[in-house]
Amino acid sequence: MLLLTAIELSSVFIISLLFAYYLYYRYCFTYWKKRGAPQLTPTFPVGDLSTAAWGKESVYLRLQTLYHKFKDAGHKFGGIYFLNGPIYFPVHPDLIKRLLVTDFEHFVDRGMYIDEEKLPLTAHIFSMKGEQWKNVRMKFTPTFTSGKMKSMYNILVQVSQHLIKTLDPVAEQGLEVDIKELLMRYTTDIIGSTAFGVDCNSLDNPNTEFNRMVAMIFNNPSWKLYKMALEEGLQNPGNIIKIAHDNKVVQKYFNDLVRDTIEYRDKNNIVRDDFMNILMQMRSTGMEFKEIVAQAFLFFTAGFETSSSTMSNCIHELAHNQEIQDKLREEIHENLGRESSKYTYDDVLALPYLDKCVKETLRKYPPVAMLNRICVKPYKIPDTETVVEVNTPVIVSVLGLHRDPEYFPEPLEFDPERFSNSNKIAPFTYLPFGDGPRNCIGLRFGLMQTKLGLATLLNDFKFYPSPKSPRHLAVDPSTTTLVFSVLNGVHTKIVKV
Ligand code: HEM
């Protein structure tokens, strides 16, 4: 009897607690309304991202839906909720321009998780804040000039020749291949070599220790994010980064890798044209060992999947658009010849049709499908009475913009001519590399490895559709990285030219 009463009492206590929690959320969900901002109907307990939280839909598709809900109702922005936390969500290009460029001083930071002591891998330029970010960004800017890119170009040529050798036997037999998986190995080898100075050799052997680490960083189930968010009461989607970096094995692996490389180079006076060499030189400006590890780690994570998915998504579209593929190959053969090992940096980057095809791929499948910032200074949204408070996260749906029929008619069509000189793209509707002072610093490197990889592949091979991949590639709903990751790979049939 006494036991029953105890059970009853604790049930009542739990139910009351849940109810109080529910009422508290209901109260939180009035935040935007009270500030005169348009909002939707957020649900307990995950706010406006419910379908994404339960793994039913990718967070990028959910944001695209939210983008249209506000825009189609005639709003220039909306207020949304992640759990019970408010997020400012601009959808009009003018407000997006203000956020990224004109009023940048209010939104200098991204609000990503960063803890130099507990998780040193998080202390990189993508997460850094305020003055510290400004200083490091200034130091890094000369690292990404076209001169520096050219000096690394030879490493890329070697890896792209290796890629051809790996694909040759497949193409001889006209087989199908998951080109995404293969190109991830291509970019792993390039960035492994340029950022860490190691020969990952994942094109030959996908099961190296390096690749095991990569899997640990990127293959995390989405429920982990929500579990962490709920446990820690975190309301900022920027904390997504903590999942990938909160791993002692990964931390130790990259620490040891960088320490061994630096010691070896110092001892043997080795100077190589790569990012690691530039990072080592920065020691004279006060950069510490753990900072070097974090930056190298970021170059790897920021550069490997963004570029490989751009290449594989482009191949997929070319497989479905044979005339475009033939036209592009013709441009490559006419201007660069048939010996891809001799293609130069300047010549590859100067191909206009290749440029249009890459731009159109980045439009249809933006690898970073949302931009994020956090408010660091109170901000009155222009022409409204709504003030965005300090520490409010901000999200821009890049997928929403890129697939908005008003800016890009028939958005699922792959049409490189959208980027011809005669067709003007409306400002701040095309943002594959973000914009403003905090845009992608690795843009040149990303384009270099993407364009060289594509030119080399198209020189030697023809690509055809595979029934294993849908016509329009779908986003993996379980992705916990910031990258638009395609579900079930990108399959294509490949034959020699
Ligand atoms: C096709 C390839 C790539 C795409 C589409 C891409 C896209 C992006 C985007 C959208 C952002 C956020 C910009 C913003 O918030 O306004 C970003 C930031 C960044 N990217 Fe990339 N990226 C690519 C390749 C690379 C590569 C190869 C590297 C390095 C080697 C790199 C390094 C970075 C860094 C360091 C940042 C943070 C910059 C800062 O906060 O100051 N990216 N990238």
Automatic annotation (TrEMBL):
GO cellular component: endoplasmic reticulum membrane
Subcellular location: Endoplasmic reticulum membrane; Microsome membrane
Gene behind this protein: AUGUSTUS-3.0.2_13433
GO MF annotation terms: heme binding; iron ion binding; monooxygenase activity; oxidoreductase activity, acting on paired donors, with incorporation or reduction of molecular oxygen
Entry's transmembrane regions: 6-25
UniProt similarity note: Belongs to the cytochrome P450 family.
Keywords, in A-Z order: Endoplasmic reticulum, Heme, Iron, Membrane, Metal-binding, Microsome, Monooxygenase, Oxidoreductase, Transmembrane, Transmembrane helix
Binding site for heme: C440
CDD domains: CYP6-like (cd11056)
Gene3D superfamilies: Cytochrome P450
InterPro entries in the cross-refs: Cyt_P450, Cyt_P450_CS, Cyt_P450_E_grp-I, Cyt_P450_sf, Insect_CytP450_Detox
Principal subcellular localisation of the protein: endoplasmic reticulum
Cofactor(s) needed for function: heme
Provenance organism: Tribolium castaneum (Red flour beetle)
Name the record gives this protein: Cytochrome P450 346A2
Cytoplasm listed as a keyword: no
Record membrane topology: Peripheral membrane protein
